[in-house]
TrEMBL record:
Functional pathway: Cofactor biosynthesis; coenzyme A biosynthesis; CoA from (R)-pantothenate: step 1/5
Designated name of the protein: Pantothenate kinase
Taxonomic source organism: Picrophilus torridus (strain ATCC 700027 / DSM 9790 / JCM 10055 / NBRC 100828 / KAW 2/3)
Single GO molecular function: ATP binding
Keyword Nucleus: no
Source organism phylogeny: Archaea, Methanobacteriati, Thermoplasmatota, Thermoplasmata, Thermoplasmatales
Length: 275
């Protein structure tokens, strides 16, 4: 498919968006992100216009493996919705609904972080149900990769028109009557080869160690040589995140509405729509 853009929009895409440091290829912005955001924006506008509940948000889920680039993609879509389509957008991560580390340790499941049993699923479902109804001024605790735990910082969600929900667990089978994916309006799955995912995970692990301050969980690794660090990262990747990817994430890809297939350099290879 080819697209053409109004001149003002073209200028916006080619000069303003790249200045935002979104880490996204210009060609992908023009050919993929903006048109897909335009389509989702249209669905979001139609939902709000036809809802008998009034001003309810459109829930956009962004899912895929750990380190697939969900955070970067959520930010990219959020900037496009806000700046081009003039929508109020909030982003939350389902990491906010992880049990705290001390609870995971007490339950003996600290090495199962990200698996279904590591979430406070009832809190997550209550949040999603309230968000869907358009209830104002919701708050969730922020998860920090750096601290490696749910923190005491509160994030406010106040009547967005589009609420982006970034999480590995959106398509999971939880032991609850209504699943998270039942409450989303549109779900994007970011897919890549396992080799690329592993590479991105290891790179991010090294970056977290490199930038670790005294509060960081990763400060314990500072000073180790790169080979040792890569081995630690590979071990965590293979025994936890890849296992979770195979057991709970990729097998439910068919529940998503669109699949964005990324190459190892993060550029987009193709987009598939479920019709
Ligand atoms: N478009 C991109 N261009 C370059 N690097 C990218 C891009 N998208 C993601 N990355 C890099 O890939 C790594 C993983 O990205 P990100 O942190 O967004 O993943 P994630 O899916 O949110 O991970 P998690 O599930 O652990 O929260 C990071 O190091 C990030 O900088
Ligand atoms: C917080 C999650 C589960 C998802 O973002 C992930 O980043 C994670 O921490 N997984 C556990 C194993 C690890 O990477 O340390």
């Amino acid at each position: 498919m080819d697209f053409y853009f109004r001149p003002d929009l073209r200028r916006f895409i080619l000069s303003d968006l790249p200045e935002m440091n979104l880490m996204v290829d210009r060609k992908d912005l023009v050919n993929a992100y903006v048109p897909l955001a335009g389509y989702i924006n249209m669905l979001a506008t139609l939902k709000r216009r036809s809802s008998i509940l009034g001003d309810v948000p459109y829930l956009l889920g962004i899912t895929g493996s750990v380190a697939a680039g969900k955070t970067v993609m959520s930010k990219t879509f959020s900037e496009i919705f806000a700046r081009i389509f003039k929508k109020n957008v909030d982003i939350i991560s389902t990491d906010s609904f992880l049990k705290k580390n001390n609870e995971l340790i007490n339950e003996g499941i600290i090495d199962r972080k990200g698996f279904p049993e590591s979430y406070r699923i009832n809190d997550m479902m209550n949040f999603l149900k309230m968000a869907r109804l358009g209830i104002k001024n919701l708050k969730v605790y922020e998860y920090s990769h750096d601290v490696y735990d749910v923190t005491d910082n509160l994030i406010s969600i106040d009547s967005p028109e589009i609420l982006i929900i970034d999480g590995i667990n959106i398509l999971f089978d939880f032991n609850v009557p209504v699943m998270p994916y039942n409450l989303m309006d549109f779900i994007i799955f970011i897919r890549s080869d396992e080799g690329c995912l592993e590479r991105w995970y290891i790179k991010r692990f090294l970056d977290l160690v490199k930038n670790a301050g005294s509060e960081s969980f990763y400060s314990r690794f500072v000073g180790m040589d790169e080979k040792t660090l890569k081995n630690i990262a590979l071990n965590v990747w293979s025994n936890i995140n890849l296992k979770n990817y195979r057991e709970n994430i990729i097998k439910n890809i068919f529940r998503s509405n669109a699949i964005i297939e990324k190459r190892c350099d993060h550029s987009i290879e193709s987009i598939y729509f479920r019709i």
